[in-house]
Design a protein that fits this description.
single chain, alpha/beta, 5-stranded parallel sheet, 4-stranded mixed sheet, 16% strand, disordered N terminus
Length: 1003
């Protein structure tokens, strides 16, 4: 609300007091918008006409703009109130329009004369309303007309006329500009439709449209713009009537026949228009039947001028309302009979791709209420067919809701089956905006490759996508890793530290065992010497046996596990550097399997029965080669070494520790975060290939994009939220995050084991301690700083001796032991050997079994330098369910007590707010599943998840893509029922790169 500046307000009060003779204590003024409100009060209520007479005479001689602040807009009208002091409501109110003061004064003088003569006659000059003046097109009158509504909202109005030149070389036209100013920022949806209705109600001539500009007082830039279509209602009706719209034809005929006191009812059957002429007003049933000749003379020229599409004739009836039989009938032939261009229906034209016909059908579909369209202009449709994509822009004074238009348009375009249209792109915006508020895309046919193309006029972004066949190279992308020298330096450093601390650690351990004492300690008690000697002998034997067993297991693991390649890329042969995009034997890693009954080794050039993912290759492996990105160098050893050197405590999730170490190494090497970060559970870890995505994006015009896969087995929404908001710094985050997962990660009804383990870790506690420590201690009270330090010291002292010794032993033995790092693999191998021994398996069958490592173990050992886990095994239901139980959705713990509300939803909302505040684009991909996995129970949960995601997809920085049922029958793309292999990951990556709605970053 605008208020008058204090000194100016004082000037206004004094001026009113002088004009009316009322004491300044009885005068109050307030300026709202373009209206000045004056309240006059006294011990007795001031006389209305006498007060007004004095005030109007003063207004004739005074320019109110001089008395107000120069920054305030002009005053169009004055409201004068009179009341007795102490009363809440005024006794009278009078509105004075400053452009008609003379007429107001004449009216007041006549009222005074009438009062003096005690006459009951009502007299006064005729005051022309602002509406009548505004219809003439006068900008000042239009501003006064609009201020009648907007001033109550504290919005002042100014109107101007400016010339503008259309782009199509047409002559210059007048454009009406309405400037709205207020002390606050009013919502555009609050003002849009009222302004549009009032302007269109004027039926202004000479203007195509009006531009509404809202601006906050004191600011230089406008808050928002709004375009109002000023096309007269008659013109809109004729446009629709031209396409054969029955409702529009009925409105036009009713307007023509209204002067003849004839009502009209219109209906369409097949290609004939039926027009019933009845008396316009006949409550008693005595009105005469409309004259036939008069009606036909009025109807025929109108229909011939309209020439409705695909309507060949009209039958006109004359009768009274309620009569079963007409009094007279006549038949009219319409232009469609003689002109073939008018004979084709709008729907048939739309099927051929006729854009005007499509626009009419879409506008009629989106504007079912004709009255609302005539009042506000309705939803306007702009169309552009470009490179097989049909771009459809929907704009209105208030931006159309996505759910209001998308389903209708998509269903309608699918029914048309227009030749050459491979996809639809739908946009929504407020009229007057260049950028859309939301967008939606769907492909009607599979589109292979897309490249940047010119921007449509109404487009949301500067880059759009079209088709172009590009050539792909088969060159793999090699990236540097740890060198041999770095590894040797690390080993030397660890050995030096062990030698320096070994003596003191052993000494402390022996003293804690109470079997040994300090050499200079006086013996106050008598010890059993023989017992001490026995303990020493058996202790030495136990230690020796432990060392021998550890050495033996280390040798077995060393012989049966290939040494990870951490040397430089120069060791690779030229043939390996030019690996094909298709999978084959040369791309598979050759591995051997530990067996107690067979020690034969395969020849160097013979392919092992194990594939690159250490899964057995079936005898029924398809012979066809599927496209996939080249296998990259494994980074497991690198991750282990980096995690061991990291100063950050563990998160109790080994894979998170190693992925974080790889990510930190990438940041240190490049100096900046990757352009794209893939995150999620094992479905992301195995399902999106960074190399394939980067290469596919390069063919779309986005070269040299750095992509990293931060997938973590078992990661839920809570885990992802923790990694994004607490583990990684904002400066370490990319421009776009691809969250690849599914409904299981959002189930708030099941126990989140991964996050529970993570929350109990020392790394979790440190991550949450980083936030308060970033504040300067100078900003805190001294007692708070001291108390914090005391609390920290107390916590350190409370650490038990047992925990300290246990942690030290684990670290020391882990660095010395040859088998400690591979304890999970040893456990799995022993379990498999016991299982084989119990089932009396032969040596041959042993060679056909997998090494028994779990998926999680494999993922920890086979991640490449981009964090991606490439599995080459192909899902074969016949063989898979021989070794694994078929678990239905009813008994799947991942879907136990399924609900999207709860802790996972809260974490997801935090991620949405965080990414929006840091201007990071978030894309969620619902990953593919097999048909075997999607039983009726899981399908029901997936549908709940779909509805949940679609509700959240209205966020501007969030994009949702559903691939869950993309390849339900293509088992070759999966490694198990719910996880993709490297071939499926390649297809997903390519499909993501081809998605034109994802805002990929440009370097």
């Amino acid at each position: 609300m605008k208020t008058v500046v204090p000194d100016r307000q004082q000037s206004l009060v004094q001026w009113v007091s002088q004009a009316t003779g009322i004491n300044t204590f009885g005068v109050k003024v307030r300026l709202r918008g373009n209206d000045l409100h004056i309240l006059c009060e006294g011990t007795e209520c001031p006389q209305r006409w006498r007060t007004l007479s004095d005030l109007l005479q003063a207004l004739q001689q005074t320019n109110l703009d001089i008395l107000t602040n120069s920054e305030q807009t002009s005053i169009y009208q004055v409201f004068v109130y009179g009341r007795r002091k102490g009363e809440q409501r005024p006794s009278w109110c009078h509105r004075v329009q400053l452009n008609q003061i003379d007429k107001h004064l004449e009216q007041v003088q006549q009222a005074l004369l009438a009062d003096s003569e005690k006459s009951k006659q009502s007299g006064g000059a005729l005051i022309v309303s602002n509406e009548s003046l505004a219809r003439q097109g006068n900008p000042e009158a239009i501003a006064r007309y609009l201020s009648e509504t907007l001033s109550t909202l504290g919005v002042s109005v100014q109107a101007k006329i400016k010339l503008y030149k259309p782009k199509n070389s047409q002559p210059e036209e007048n454009r009406l500009w309405i400037f709205c100013q207020s002390s606050y920022s009013p919502d555009a949806s609050l003002l849009a439709e009222p302004i549009a209705q009032k302007l269109r109600y004027l039926k202004l001539s000479g203007y195509q449209d009006a531009v509404i500009v809202s601006q906050v007082s004191g600011e230089t830039a406008p808050d928002w713009l709004l375009r109002v279509d000023l096309t007269p209602p008659e013109v809109m009706l004729k446009e629709w009537a031209r396409w054969g719209d029955v409702q529009a034809i009925a409105r036009l005929l009713a307007e023509v026949l209204s002067g003849l006191k004839v009502g009209v009812q219109v209906s369409l059957k097949e290609s004939t228009l039926h027009i019933f002429c009845i008396p316009a007003f006949d409550p008693l049933g005595t009105a005469p039947i409309p004259d036939k000749v008069v009606c036909l003379e009025a109807i025929l020229p109108q229909l011939e001028a309209i020439a409705p599409q695909a309507i060949f004739a009209a039958t006109v009836y004359g009768q009274k309302a309620g009569d079963k039989e007409p009094t007279w009938i006549d038949w009219l032939t319409l232009p469609a009979t003689n002109h073939p261009a008018f004979a084709i229906s709008p729907l048939d034209l739309a099927n051929t791709g006729d854009e005007p016909a499509i626009v009419f059908l879409l506008e009629r579909l989106l504007n079912p209420d004709l009255d609302w369209r005539l009042l506000t202009g309705g939803i306007r449709v702009l169309l552009l067919n470009k490179n097989g994509l049909l771009h459809i822009m929907c704009d209105a004074p208030v931006c159309p809701l996505r759910q209001q238009v998308v389903s209708k348009i998509t269903q309608f375009i699918r029914q048309l089956k227009i030749s050459g249209i491979m996809g639809i792109r739908i946009y929504g915006r407020r009229a007057g905006n260049k950028e859309p508020f939301w967008n939606y895309g769907v492909d009607l046919e599979h589109r292979q490759r897309l490249v940047p193309e010119a921007t449509p006029e109404f487009a949301a972004t500067s880059i759009y996508i079209g088709d172009l066949v590009t050539s792909e190279t088969s060159e793999p992308i090699l990236r540097p890793d740890l060198t041999t020298k770095e590894v040797q330096n690390f080993v030397t450093e660890v050995a030096r530290d062990w030698i320096a601390t070994a003596t003191s650690t052993a000494r402390k351990f022996l003293l804690k065992s109470q079997l040994f004492t300090e050499s200079n300690e006086s013996a106050e008690r008598n010890y059993d010497v023989q017992g001490i000697k026995t303990a020493l002998v058996w202790g030495a034997l136990g230690l020796l046996l432990t060392l021998q067993t550890d050495w033996l297991l280390g040798q077995i693991i060393a012989r049966n596990t290939p040494t990870p390649k951490v040397a430089n890329a120069s060791l690779s042969s030229s043939s390996e550097q030019k690996a094909s995009l298709t999978s084959g034997k040369n791309q598979s890693e050759k591995t051997t399997f530990f067996s107690s009954t067979s020690k034969t080794k395969s020849p160097p050039n013979q392919s092992s029965v194990f594939n690159a993912s250490e899964f057995t290759q079936s005898d029924e492996t398809p012979k066809n080669n599927l496209p996939a990105a080249p296998l990259k160098e494994k980074a497991t050893a690198t991750a282990i070494l980096l995690a061991a050197r990291s100063q950050m405590p563990s998160f109790n999730v080994r894979q998170l520790d190693e992925q974080l170490a790889l990510y930190k190494q990438r940041l240190a090497r490049t100096g900046s975060p990757p352009d794209i970060l893939i995150i999620g559970s094992s479905r992301a870890l195995r399902g999106v290939d960074p190399a394939a995505l980067s290469k596919a994006l390069a063919t779309q015009g986005y070269p040299n994009l750095d992509v990293f896969n931060f997938g973590i087995n078992g990661a839920t929404a809570q885990v992802v939220d923790f990694v994004i908001r607490h583990v990684l710094e904002p400066s370490e985050l990319p421009k776009i995050i691809i969250w690849a997962d599914g409904a299981r990660a959002f189930n708030g009804g099941r126990e989140d084991i991964t996050f529970k383990s993570l929350a109990a870790s020392a790394g979790y506690k440190q991550a949450f301690e980083k936030t308060p420590t970033t504040a300067s201690s100078n900003d805190l009270p001294e007692n708070m700083v001291n108390s914090g330090e005391q609390k920290t010291n107390q916590e350190k002292q409370e650490i038990s001796t047992y925990e300290a010794v246990n942690q030290s032993l684990n670290q020391v033995l882990g660095s010395v032991s040859a088998s400690y790092q591979n304890r999970d693999q040893i456990k799995s191998l022993l379990q498999k050997q016991l299982l084989i021994f119990g089932n009396n398996q032969t040596v041959t069958s042993q060679k056909q079994l997998t090494d028994g490592t779990s998926d999680e173990s494999i993922s920890q050992q086979a991640v490449d330098v981009d964090g991606f886990l490439p599995l080459s095994i192909r899902f074969n239901p016949a063989r898979y369910y021989q070794k694994h139980s078929r678990v239905t959705g009813n008994y799947d713990n991942d879907y136990k007590s399924f609900q999207v509300e709860g802790q996972q939803d809260a974490a997801f909302q935090e991620v949405l707010q965080f990414t929006q505040s840091h201007k990071i684009s978030l894309v969620f991909v619902n990953m593919p599943l097999t048909g075997d996995y999607l039983d009726p129970v899981r399908k029901q949960y997936e549908q709940q998840f779909q509805q949940y995601m679609l509700r959240l997809a209205t966020n501007s920085n969030f994009i949702y893509r559903d691939f869950s049922q993309q390849w339900t029958k293509v088992n070759d793309f999966f490694s198990d029922p719910s996880h993709l292999n490297r071939f499926g990951a390649y297809e997903v990556s390519k499909k993501l790169a081809n998605d034109p709605m994802i805002p990929w970053p440009v370097k």
